[in-house]
Amino acid sequence: MEQAKKPFIEMLPKIYGLYTGGFIAFIILMAILEQMGLGAETIGILFIVFTVLVYAGIGWLSRTMQVEAYYVAGRQVPALFNGMATAADWMSGASFVAMAGGIYFGGHGYLAFLVGWTGGYVLVASLMAPYLRKFGCYTVPDFIGTRYGGNLARLMGVIVLVVASFTYVTAQINATGTIASRALQIPFEVGVWFGLFGILLCSMLGGMRAVTWTQVAQYIVLIIAYLIPVFWMSNKQDFGLIPQLVYGDAVQRVTELEQMHQVGVLKPTESFAGLKALTVPFVAAGGGMEAWKFVTLAFCMMAGTASLPHILMRYFTTPSVKSARRSVAWSLFFIFLLYFTAPALATFTKLQILDPNLATGIIGKTIAEVNAIDWVQKWSAVKFLAISDSNGDGILQINEFFMRGDIVVLATPEIAGLPYVISGLVAAGGMAAAMSTADGLLLAIANALSHDLYYKIIDPTAETAKRLVVARILLVVLGAAGAFVASLKLTSILGAVAWAFDFAMSGLFFPLVLGVWWKRANRQGAVAGMLCGFLAGTWYLYMVRWGGMEPWLGIDHLRFGIIGCAVNLVVMIVVSLATEEPDEATQKMVDEVRIPKGETVLAASH
Amino acid sequence: MNQWEVFIAALVRDRDQIGAIMDNLEQHWAETRSLTTWILILWFIFSMGIFFFANSLNSITFFGWPFGFYMAAQGSLVIFVVLIVVLNIKQEKIDDKYGLAEEQ
């Protein structure tokens, strides 16, 4: 295996080039079969089964019994490929399926997520990634535990990591279940377990190494699946060759149409579970409180990004500090490709639905006409869409058209009249997005528990083989727990993906930043900061969400991380200054972390 | 010269002054810190600062887009990518200058 290493890394562009070609050939084959009369359902099944089998195959080929390979992919992942893997790790089922719909309904206000989920990478690049890479840790609590010293600091790190990541992972397993159940025509509860099975095939045998190489493969699938429908639709409807660069006029046209259709003036008088009517104007930003809410949400998402362990640990896998830094740039570039497409897609969908001059426009037509449209019937049948003539005038107004945000991505191919093969492709893309994120999260949790809790705290004498067996058992147990929670469909209780970011920033942001940037930060300060910050954030979330407390300064349950990280910062500084400064060895360790040259602080295979 | 003065000197790029006082390691870190500070100032402006004024910016038209909307949907995202690339290039230069880059 050792000898095969170098050629394998050099072969990567060729391998993934062939893989991409193979995937495109598969799409073309499906398109041909569709023309020959293959049914839509079969195409959907083939797309999901084929891609999941390929990921499982990569997972099997990447199996390993080496600690370094299992935890950090042998630290040999080139910057560009790590960028792709991080992008897949990052973009969840929600990014893929729900983001464009969120922009469709939320307009400017929702764009705070876009800004936050990209701007966070500037923090990762400037404050975190290169220094954590130089440190040479296996997990994020590994850094906390070694920099500050002591099991208590390490344990606090583990707890924050588990809470933040588990909040996130159930949503991902839920998404794999939804997609699998729809494409394979099986019940949701079975779909969840099918999704989990796929996820574990990718990660169990090879740990980080397997997850890395499947995530690269999943990124390729998800980005192709996101971009092809948008380009195709745009060129078919004459919106422009590269739609992302030219949709400015379309945005203005949407604003005019919204005024014409009285968006924001007409409020819906009925409601359908899970569906929404459009009430928020697209462009209007609002001043004062609206601007404050935008900025605070963006800040939470950015600080959360820079604290989420499943993202940070991706940068432990690069061969050097320099490549860790470069890999952050690649990550953001690959994420950008999807994120700058989502608003364009939302704009075009809006245009198609609102514009009476386009064949696809439905607002302002008669109810009978609209009900006769194919895609309206199909998505109404699965309760993704509802039409109700509230005022009884026989014409569809903006407040009488209800839909789920997901439709913007899922139904685009049909609204624009593209072949079914594109819908199958979109399902495969959503599956890839959800699976890759779930893999990264599950691995982050299982690694923290096996490396930090089991090996470092409970049994420091454990042998390599035993450690890796424990890591795998934990992975399966955690995955099963996640799937079980997901199958209960407690989404209203489990709440938003945004919470994961808030939990992570409450507990981890300042201990990580100050660990590198402030030598005076010590164990007492870090432990007190993590504990108080995490508890304050959680308490605030509870009070605002369930305790009936009025949000303070507009900081609602999506933004509770601001409270948590502020408390964390203050407590950490006060307690650090009130207690003695870290010993010389620790200070020297921080000096070491700050320069790229030399050995990692933690020895290999620690 | 205390740490804070070193930091200020680095911010105003008074290299002679820093050079006379500090050794290699400290100079490297002072420059790293000033670079990071500049990057974070720009990051703050484009991730949060301008969005306090998004409503006013929307009255400007930028290649057809209302400018506030454009920045949130695309402009700031591009700037973030550029910021990281600039950070990387400059940081690699700083590391090389002080001989603290990794050996290949």
Overview of the molecule:
The complex is a heterodimer of chains A (606) and B (104). Chain A is mostly helical and 606 residues long. Chain A contains 27 helices and 3 strands. The two termini of chain A are 21 Å apart. Chain B has one domain. The radius of gyration of chain B is 18 Å and the shape is elongated. With 104 residues, chain B is mostly helical. In chain B, 40% of the residues are buried. Helices cover 72% and strands 4% of the residues of chain B. The chains are: A mainly alpha (606), B mainly alpha (104). At the A-B interface, helix 6, helix 12, helix 13 and helix 15 of A face helix 3, helix 4, strand 1, strand 2 and helix 5 of B.
Work out the number of β strands of chain B: 2
The average pLDDT score of chain B comes to: 83
Structural class of chain A: mainly alpha
- CATH T-level fold name of the largest domain in chain A: Sodium/glucose cotransporter
What is the architecture of the largest domain in chain A at the second tier of CATH? Up-down Bundle
* Number of discrete domains of chain A: 2
Order of helices and strands of chain B: HHHHEEH
